[in-house]
């Protein structure tokens, strides 16, 4: 599944389309997780003014100067979706949506939304002509936690969540907690596993059993790993491609994810795998012992 670095990489790949005008919209296969809006062709004549990312969602802001109208499209890549730009190629089997952009020199670039598993989303978030689904932003965006690379996500924030003033400390596994999008967005399975390994924290350790020093290391490692993955274009382990079809290179540096049964690069122990929330969680039993509650 494309995670935050892959979505951020996709966002950057769309920058060449900024200020270009939509010339044609072709909905080839509308059935995704939610049906693509039938009137998406109303974007014709609008310019793409901005591309934003919130968690794993992309927000494409369009503007029509003559009519002073705005439209925003929300895109989620699902399990296997990608946005790729091409010139003069035939649509492929799993190209659900094609948008032709034309620049001021008359050159046309076609943006393909490609999704073999059809679990992605393309919906209106804002449309000056009408509000098709007025609660779209509320349903998909309002519950999200802070961005992991923002200053709002720090050890004080995480500690306050784990040890709330008027409630019991949070005892759920730390891996479950950091993958909760209402706690912090974009820490998917790959990056959670890698961050916990570098922080020497077992993924099943109850969150309230982790001391402040380990929490601080965990926050720092989450930020560092995600930043490096963005620079390297994401992990791109299976279906994900971006821009001109290239994949990311971060998978070449993975220390534990996908390496069950192999030797730990740090201590030589065999890496083990456990299921947490139905997801594979690879860890080193020597480098990542479950931390007991300090007394």
Summarize the structure.
Monomer. The protein contains six helices and ten strands; from the N terminus they run H-E-E-E-E-E-E-E-E-H-H-H-H-H-E-E.
The helix content, as a percent range, equals 10-25%
Q: Beta fraction of the residues?
A: 15-25%
The CATH class of the largest domain: Alpha Beta
Q: Give the termini distance in whole angstroms.
A: 40 Å
Based on DSSP secondary structure assignment, what is the total number of beta strands? 10
The CATH topology name of the largest domain reads N-terminal domain of MutM-like DNA repair proteins
List keywords for this structure.
FPG_N, N-terminal domain of MutM-like DNA repair proteins, DNA-binding, alpha+beta, four-stranded antiparallel beta sheet, 6 helices, metal-binding, elongated, 2 domains, Helicase, Ruva Protein, domain 3, hydrolase, Formamidopyrimidine-DNA glycosylase
How would you characterize the overall build of this protein?
This protein is α+β, with helices and mostly antiparallel strands and 295 residues long. It folds into 2 domains: 4-140, MutM-like, N-terminal (N-terminal domain of MutM-like DNA repair proteins, Alpha-Beta Barrel), CATH 3.20.190; 155-283, Helicase, Ruva Protein, domain 3 (Orthogonal Bundle), CATH 1.10.8. The chain is built from 6 helices and 10 strands; from the N terminus they run H-E-E-E-E-E-E-E-E-H-H-H-H-H-E-E. The protein has helices at residues 4-13, 136-140, 155-162, 174-178, 189-198, 212-231, and strands at 21-27, 47-54, 57-64, 69-76, 82-86, 95-102, 108-114, 121-127, 272-276, 279-283. A 4-stranded antiparallel β-sheet has the order 1-6-7-5, with no helix packed on it. Helix 5 crosses helix 6. Keywords: DNA damage, DNA repair, DNA-binding, Glycosidase, Hydrolase, Lyase, Metal-binding, Multifunctional enzyme, Zinc, Zinc-finger. Its EC number is 3.2.2.23, 4.2.99.18. This is Formamidopyrimidine-DNA glycosylase. DNA binds at residues 94, 117. The active site is at residues 2-3, 56, 279.
